Fold each of these.
Amino acid sequence: MTLPPSSAFLSVQPTDQGFEYWRTRPYLSETMQQQLQDANVLIVPLEDIRGVEGPVFLRGTDQLFQTLRRLEDQDVKVDVTIDDADYKELSLYSDSLALGSLVMTLFVVPLVVNVVSQWINNHIGAKSAGERVKLQLVVQSPDGRVTQLDYDGPAAQFESELRPALQALGGGGQGAPGSTTGALPPVQAERGDGGNHNE
């Protein structure tokens, strides 16, 4: 399969860090490794951050997790790749809205991108649509091939930049078969309660 072309804001490359990589990280308990087998979307941590012990998530991860859970009635099963006791967030001082990394199956890509795009738009609120967004999407195809897409560009162009690349991967552009992506209610940038991320 030929990879989609990269652009000024989007980098596309193959990777070996798909579901198997993240479900078997050594810091996960056996219980958590087993629980992650049911997920088709993983919110994964940053590893080997200088001056930080253990894996960490970017500030706002809990909000994003709660938002993505709204898709559970559309066969999207999202989980956070860490045991609850080890969950911690890191604040990055940057001009960009950094959202971390999501690993997902090809089937759920359109739904996830749609909701993340809505979340971004609600999150920046009255701020300029030119605010930069950083997000890594790792997409695993049914044949096991894994593609990493790194977006670093204006919030207003997030979905329009990603959609052609995802279509080229076979991820569609309007929603998974039988989905109601276009009818999703507005997504609020709500704040999580900091509780159990893996229920």
Amino acid sequence: MMPSLMAGDVVVFDRYYCSFMMIALLLNQKVDVCARLHHLRRADFRKGHRLGKYDHLSVWTRPDRPAWMNERTYATIPETLELRELRYAIVECMQGGLMSQAALQKECDELLKRIAECRVGDRPGRLEPRVIKPRRHGYPLMQKPRDVLRAELRKHCT
């Protein structure tokens, strides 16, 4: 994906890709990044240069070199990144008024349809089955109410 991006492009990521190294590599290519903050990284709006309510500039420091990155690439990564962090909520319609529940549902459905139509890179032969991952402990999924399962267990235990 990285070689296909050009200076001036804007990349929109989910929170999985919101890492120092990924952002730094993209900024080195002059590519702008918009991503949700990774769930383990907290935004403290009391720190950094305040731009407004829930809007500030934050400084991230470079972590140690990850195993997947060679030393030459790591040397091109800056020591710090100054990033803009903001919190927002999508509740307003383009006309400026609040949306009704039906209109909001329609907008969400349209957005999800557009996202589903997007191709995510050229991966010939790649198939993604829609199944639940294997359970870690090998226990089956609970598909009956808990009290019914307890009654069945009592019947077989006595």
Amino acid sequence: MARNKKATAAAENSESTPSENVNEPVNPPAETAVSTPAEQGEGKPEQKTFRQIDPFGVESILLGPTNDSPRIRLLRSNKFQQMQIKFDEKPADNHLDMLRDNGWTWRNQEKVWTIQLDKESRWKTQADAEYLFREIGNAIRAEKGLEPVQELGA
């Protein structure tokens, strides 16, 4: 198999130092993964596939009048099968109570509120999360004298 010119040049220019551990495994970047022959079907050549960043942003609401104001973000993690809400600054207790009352859990390590996607109807869990997200975001904006960003039920 022929190597491309860039790979050949990089290999020729690389020098090993005694402190390098040559037995360490080389992992591909987090955004890429190589599929196995079983995933591709027998007889097909191995292909690189790109994965979406996880969790990925679904929606964001500015909580102030300017673009550099704090935000509330709605994220979805396919890896953990959950929706996430992240605040740039801690909201009032009544907004946190809304999250708790609707089954959301605080994950201190990630600094994010999460709820698991229902295995039978993931779309419903996401739709409910989007509705609550907008409800909380618009309530915070109203407390600051700002217009709602999106009408609920729209």
Amino acid sequence: MSRHLSAQLRQLGDFSIDAFDLYFTGEWIAKAVRICFLERLFSHRSLLPIQTRIQRLPIAALCLLLPFNAFAAEQYVFCAMEVKPYTVLNGRQFDGIMPQVLRRVAKELGWDYKIDLLPWKRALSMAKIGACDGVLPAVKNLEREQWLVYPEPVSTVTPVFFVPIDSAITFNGNLQEFVERPNVTIGVTLGFSYAPEFDRLWLENKKHNFDEGPDAEHTFQKFLAHRFSVYVIPKKMGDYNLREIGATEKFKALTPDIGEQPYYIAFSKLGKLAKKVDEYNATVIQLRNAGELAKIEAEN
């Protein structure tokens, strides 16, 4: 801060600075005003005792003693990708199963939050370094447990294989035999985790039997264009996407499914929510016992 500005601030007779003006002036000037204010408050040139000086201060002046952001509400930042119907982007707002659950939890706990749309790999990278407080929807795996906290799950998904309605491909439950078939190419989305056994086979055979899309929408469009023979996706998500474009009669899901996975709103271990897991868990359990989670799932 320049000496000229410091001198000007010391000449101020009224320290009842409007909070709106103070915010838009910038934190560095707020600190400068606070310093000059303290100099005047504790000046040895005043004939009044310190206690008397403090008692005579207006409330607005006392606010200068507080940190600049003392009255700012703490906001939690979540990173998400669009995975319909679990996360659905409507304009600039997220809807769907996971955001609706988060909204109910936040209401109960008084949280202020926002959800940012990001590619899934970037969302995970942000959570890894604590640049966001949580990610959704998330599946648990050993690698991610190094930097993510997995509280109570809020949904469950069952990945299945989708094929064209006239396809002769069948699935008997033997994953290894299925992915190693020479006539089968499986469409997957990078960054997704489907089921432990399937993920392992994907890693071992990815150069031969898998067609990888950068995001869920890209992979789905490739499936519609018959770029690969089999599409692996959570059943509810596949049904939603096909119903949305009126193509439910053109594709079918093979049985059995390839496993069941809990879906989480996961917290970054380096984020602000890492210490709030207990209150989050208690609220989710309360909503589950009251039938709220099942109601949200059924409505989507």
